[in-house]
Write a structure and sequence with these properties.
This protein folds into 2 domains: 157 residues, Rossmann fold, CATH 3.40.50.1400; 120 residues, Rossmann fold, CATH 3.40.50. β5, α8 and β6 form a beta-alpha-beta unit. It is an alpha/beta fold. The chain has 12 helices and 8 strands. Bound molecules: cobalt (II) ion (CO).
Amino acid sequence: MRGSNLLGFSGFRRILLFALALCVFSSTGSGAVFAAEQGEMKRGILIAAFGSSVPEGQAAIAAVETAVRRAFPDTEIRVAYTSRIIMRKIASEQGRVIDEPAIALAKMAYEGFTDVAVLSTHVIPGAEYQDLEAVVNGFKVMNESGTKAGFERISLSKPLLSNAMDFERLAQSLLAAYASEARGGAVVFVGHGTHHFSDAAYSALQIALWRESPNFFVGTIEGLPSYDDVLAQLKKTRNKRVTLVPAMLVAGDHAYNDIGGSEAESWKSLLAGEGYETSARFQGLGQLEAVQRLLVDKLREAWSE
Ligand code: CO
């Protein structure tokens, strides 16, 4: 009978399917909302990067993402940017929406992830890392306060330069990656630099490099060692050739303008003005395999905490 069939099994099934479809479309995931309720563990990784609005910079973030995917093939991996300026620029120019960590984590919690590790791609534990830490801690507090809004477990990996061993390890990676540039010339790594106390990490990296070779220098755009510090040290050597390399996760805006750009104020132009034969490499730290391994190790450490 047609009338009863509407309320019968197939009719009910149609309504149920419709309701399920609504759930799937209203969440950004694939119906995973139910996973946590069934007591299953659902692991996820969120890669947090400052971000970059240029394809060259995005390539370094993509390279890190690929390395993490290779290391954790069965884990869902997402990427968030911390720079709102960059996110807005990408949204308006490319129509692509990238989430900031708090939003990305809220979505993951909503989709039923239970165990999440956040990968910090910061070079030093500065103000930006602390901001990310505050967001992660917020999600920790949610769980500890007994709400279902957070995760059962959430951890955050340490920045590239955060303990004594890191300086040695990053120095070795840089020495190996730029060995040919340092033959008969100087290699100057230029970090971002900051007013934050963690800026001291760049000077510690310099010491670690000098232990191995007098041809490697470290400077920063906004902190210490400054351009003048690097120039003073360079002048003590016989180097006539200088290769500039960004000591940042990505080779983006700073690399193409302040470091290796052709404008008068770039490090490349300033050093050329001092009589050095200058060139620049546009490869972010994230594009070095050794640095990718370092990041993956930091992520493993965070997960085993
Ligand atoms: Co900057």
